[in-house]
């Protein structure tokens, strides 16, 4: 076992009815960040609690710095793990003001040589105006940021963050994400960040764990999870594409009853003649105003830098198509919208 941190064949449980079975993932080198992604209620917080030592594990082993910190036989007490956990909920001490709460994090690192200063963190997370206020006098987002700093400033061997910006306004969230990632990388702090937002998971995580329905269904880098999903469940989680039924007609070609031939490279080989579900993501198709292949727009979504148009191909098939927002003209619902043919998709993801 050479990884800095590893979860090996672990079964996590928050109750008799809820288990995550035989989970495996790791942080190879100190200073790396991984994300845990999945829908609400899947058990993401349960994993963090077990890693921090707040809950036991049912099976398997958890290693940190090449030492077992949890197994069925070994259990290192939370205060001896050098792990800090920042909860999604307000975990500040109510009888202390914000600054006094933050100072507690500093006390935990008295023997550590660390360049990270409390003042730097206060500035990075925009907490100067509320330092003298008490937890009941501040917003949920401000309390969340204060809790994060208190965990961060102790510079643990491993920092665990549970939905760190779930209560923060969207306009501020991106600034905080950049500042947090900068601090983590500058100070070489290994981190596990739990989120249900895949954009946040992809921004922070050099690797991502995706959990659905009680199991880890893919542990990979963000690009592979998005473009090379291990299963239909992984692809469906992002809700960014759709599946159409097509027939394999050669080693690099499919046929669809309306779209015609679709060319590309199969991520996994499929036998000729097999009916498959082909994943179509918004960026896979190319808009062409002059195309003879046109479909009615039934909906559209503006995303700032682009539009996604939803096209009715058949009664049961709707295709999303991404178009840059500076395209020479915009299209309206019920207009007919052309796509370039023949369709060529670099990665043919089929199930």
Give me some keywords for this one.
351 residues, alpha/beta, OB fold (Dihydrolipoamide Acetyltransferase, E2P), 2 domains, six-stranded mixed beta sheet, five-stranded mixed beta sheet, 8 helices
Task: Describe what you observe in this structure.
The protein is globular. It folds into two domains: 5-233, Rossmann fold, CATH 3.40.50; 240-348, Beta Barrel (OB fold (Dihydrolipoamide Acetyltransferase, E2P)). It is built from eight helices and 19 strands. The mean pLDDT is 93. Helix 2 packs parallel to helix 4 (140-152). By secondary structure, the chain is an alpha/beta fold. The protein has a six-stranded mixed beta sheet, sandwiched between helices.
CATH topology of the largest domain: Rossmann fold
Which CATH class of the largest domain applies here?
Alpha Beta
Helix/strand structural class = alpha/beta
Roughly what fraction of the amino acids lie in strands?
Answer: 25-35%
| Helix run count | 8
**DSSP strand tally:** 19
Helix amount: 10-25%
State the end-to-end distance: 34 Å
Q: Considering the protein shown, what is the CATH homologous superfamily of the largest domain? A: P-loop containing nucleotide triphosphate hydrolases
CATH architecture of the largest domain: 3-Layer(aba) Sandwich
The shape is globular
Mean pLDDT: 93
Over the alpha carbons, how many angstroms does the gyration radius reach? 24 Å
Biggest beta sheet summary: 6 strands, mixed
Q: State the domain count.
A: 2
As residue ranges, the low-confidence spans are none
Element-level helix/strand string: EEEHEEEHHHEHEHEEHHEEEEEEEEE
Strand order across the largest sheet: 6-7-8-3-9-10
């Amino acid at each position: 076992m050479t990884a800095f941190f590893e979860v090996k064949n672990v079964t996590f449980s928050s109750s008799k009815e809820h288990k995550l079975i035989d989970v495996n993932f790791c942080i190879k080198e100190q200073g790396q960040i991984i994300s845990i992604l999945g829908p609400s209620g899947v058990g993401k917080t349960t994993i963090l609690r077990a890693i921090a030592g707040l809950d036991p594990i049912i099976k398997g082993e958890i290693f940190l710095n090449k030492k077992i910190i949890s197994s069925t036989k070994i259990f290192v007490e939370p205060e001896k793990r050098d792990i800090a956990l920042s909860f999604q909920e307000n975990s500040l001490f109510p009888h202390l003001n914000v600054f006094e709460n933050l100072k507690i994090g500093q006390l935990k690192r008295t023997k550590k040589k660390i360049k990270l200063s409390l003042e730097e963190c206060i500035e990075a997370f925009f907490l100067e105006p509320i330092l003298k206020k008490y937890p009941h006098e501040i917003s949920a987002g401000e309390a969340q940021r204060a809790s994060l700093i208190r965990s961060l400033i102790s510079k643990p061997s491993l920092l665990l963050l549970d939905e760190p910006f779930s209560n923060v306004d969207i306009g501020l969230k991106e600034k905080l994400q950049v500042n947090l990632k900068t601090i983590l990388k500058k100070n070489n702090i290994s981190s596990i960040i739990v989120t249900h937002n895949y954009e946040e998971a992809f921004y922070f995580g050099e690797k991502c764990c995706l959990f659905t329905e009680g199991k880890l269904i893919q542990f990979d880098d963000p690009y592979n999870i998005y473009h090379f999903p291990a299963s239909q469940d992984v692809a469906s989680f992002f809700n960014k594409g759709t599946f159409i039924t097509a027939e394999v007609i050669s080693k690099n070609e499919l046929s669809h009853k309306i779209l015609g031939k679709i060319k590309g490279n199969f991520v996994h080989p499929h036998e000729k003649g097999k009916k498959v579900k082909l994943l179509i993501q918004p960026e896979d198709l190319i808009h062409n105003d002059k195309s003879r292949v046109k479909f009615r727009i039934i909906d559209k979504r503006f995303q700032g830098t682009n539009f996604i148009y939803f096209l009715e191909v058949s009664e049961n098939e709707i295709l999303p198509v991404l178009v840059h927002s500076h395209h020479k003209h915009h299209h309206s619902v019920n207009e007919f919208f052309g796509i370039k043919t023949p369709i060529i998709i670099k990665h043919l993801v089929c199930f």
